């Protein structure tokens, strides 16, 4: 159903684009400087993590959008404290949690914005209770079966917690190290600026910076505690880190401009601008390379064409995740997460004629042979058991097609 896929991707693109707009509004609102909003939204718009996930039909772009929207409302709470701002913030917190449960941590910005506005008397102001109530309302409106089928909801919630705590093949082990390396590889300079701004904000007790920092700090600590790690889990904090980076760059420029020494002023400005430009170019170049790879034909396409042209119509074919598209109107196609989830004899008994293996699934095990010895042994058994009739390796992506009889 190609139109369904296109619709899903269009929705994701709209949410990704909307996040860029919200980041601009936050940068302008939090500092009263258009330059911060423009710079932060530019960085977000060219970030490889954000551009990549704004293509996919997953909830990660949604949770990012609603988390940023909730933060914008929390800033307004800190600055103005209107009741409607608490309601909007609460609904957005609920929508964030409904998109993905770990996003519920964004409620910290709502609470902290209220505390920063009213200080010791915060508990006496009823608006915070409206905000927290609407967190629940926003969640239940979009996740009604959390109440209507409570037992199933709790069961599935425990499953997800167990899943993230125990592992996911190809995405597990030493989460903290992995996230730090990922940040270095995808935007080391820009993320370094965000860290410097966090330190500056806490040292000088800038409430806006602290408010901007609380969610990424809490969220990063939370996701780093799990066994499972991946870029889409990291995605929701990127807009906050880019806002912090933009704030650091702009404020540093104002500070440098005020230095009395012209030599120190000029040298410092050159260094800051150079690192900023290098950081932004680095982000953009990685995004361009991702686009080039996506536009290049790999084995999923060449294998699709070959299968359509060479396998007999009506053949019964088993495929695993990340395999080429096989026309279900022409072939009897059955999908499996991993081909090794069944023994070789099972496929024979079920009458399958061909098996299609994809590097996107089996490759993750071969990249970590020490961790996945059992899985590799099972794949090797499958590979030796059946007859390899075609091997594709176009674009660095491997697809194997085996014949059972």
The CA-CA distance between the termini, in Å, is: 31 Å
Shape: globular
Order of adjacent strands in the largest pleated sheet: 2-1-3-5-4
Classify the beta-strand content into a percent band: 5-15%
Low-confidence stretches are none
Largest sheet: 5 strands, mixed
Structural class computed from helices and strand pairing: alpha/beta
**Count of the separate structural domains:** 2
Tell me the total number of β-strands: 5
Calculate Rg over CA atoms: 25 Å
Order of helices and strands: HHHHHHHHHHHHHHHEEHEHHEE
Individual helix count: 18
Any key phrases for this structure?
18 helices; five-stranded mixed β-sheet; single chain; 6% strand
What would your notes on this structure say?
The chain is of the alpha/beta class and 405 residues long. It folds into two domains: 294 residues, no CATH class; 105 residues, no CATH class. It is built from 18 helices and five strands. A five-stranded mixed β-sheet has the order 2-1-3-5-4. It is globular and about 80 Å long.
Write a short abstract of this structure.
The protein has 18 helices and five strands.
Q: What does the secondary structure layout of this molecule look like, with pairings?
A:
Elements: H1 2-31, H2 34-46, H3 48-53, H4 60-79, H5 83-99, H6 107-118, H7 127-142, H8 145-148, H9 150-166, H10 175-204, H11 207-224, H12 231-234, H13 238-257, H14 262-295, H15 299-310, E1 316-320, E2 332-336, H16 344-349, E3 354-358, H17 359-366, H18 373-385, E4 387-392, E5 399-403
Helix pairs in contact: 1-2, 1-4, 1-13, 2-13, 4-5, 4-6, 5-7, 6-7, 6-11, 10-11, 10-13, 10-14, 11-13, 13-14
């Amino acid at each position: 159903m190609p139109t369904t896929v296109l619709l899903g991707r269009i929705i994701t693109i709209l949410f990704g684009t909307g996040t860029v707009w919200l980041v601009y509004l936050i940068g302008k609102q939090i500092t009263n400087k258009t330059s911060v909003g423009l710079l932060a939204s530019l960085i977000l718009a060219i970030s490889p993590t954000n551009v990549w996930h704004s293509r996919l039909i997953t909830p990660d772009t949604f949770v990012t959008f609603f988390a940023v929207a909730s933060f914008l409302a929390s800033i307004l709470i800190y600055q103005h404290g209107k009741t409607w701002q608490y309601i909007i913030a609460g609904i957005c917190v609920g929508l964030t949690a409904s998109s993905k449960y770990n996003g519920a941590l964004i409620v910290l910005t709502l609470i902290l914005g209220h505390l920063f506005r009213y200080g010791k008397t915060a508990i006496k102001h009823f608006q915070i209770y409206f905000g927290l109530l609407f967190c629940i309302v926003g969640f239940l409106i979009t996740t009604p079966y959390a109440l209507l089928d409570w037992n199933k909801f709790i069961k599935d919630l425990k499953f997800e917690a167990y899943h993230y705590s125990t592992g996911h093949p190809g995405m597990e082990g030493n989460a903290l190290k992995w996230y730090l390396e990922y940040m270095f590889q995808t935007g080391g300079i820009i993320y370094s600026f965000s860290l410097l701004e966090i330190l500056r904000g806490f040292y000088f007790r800038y409430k806006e910076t602290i408010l901007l920092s609380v969610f990424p700090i809490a969220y990063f600590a939370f996701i780093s505690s799990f066994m499972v790690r991946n870029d889409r889990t990291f995605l929701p904090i990127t807009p906050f880190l880019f806002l912090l980076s933009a704030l650091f760059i702009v404020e540093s420029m104002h500070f440098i401009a005020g230095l009395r020494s012209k030599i120190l002023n000029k040298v410092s400005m050159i260094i800051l601008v150079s690192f900023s430009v290098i950081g932004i170019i680095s982000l953009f170049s990685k995004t361009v390379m991702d686009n080039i790879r996506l536009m290049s034909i790999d084995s999923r396409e060449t294998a699709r064409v070959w299968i359509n042209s060479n396998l007999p119509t009506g053949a019964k074919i088993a495929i695993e995740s990340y395999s080429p598209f096989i026309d279900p109107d022409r072939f009897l196609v059955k999908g499996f997460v991993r081909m090794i989830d069944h023994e070789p004899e099972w496929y024979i008994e079920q009458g399958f004629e061909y098996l299609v293996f994809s590097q996107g699934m089996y490759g993750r095990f071969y990249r970590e042979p020490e961790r996945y010895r059992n899985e590799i042994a099972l794949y090797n058994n499958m590979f030796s058991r059946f007859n390899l009739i075609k091997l594709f390796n176009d674009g660095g992506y491997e697809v194997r097609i085996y014949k059972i009889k």
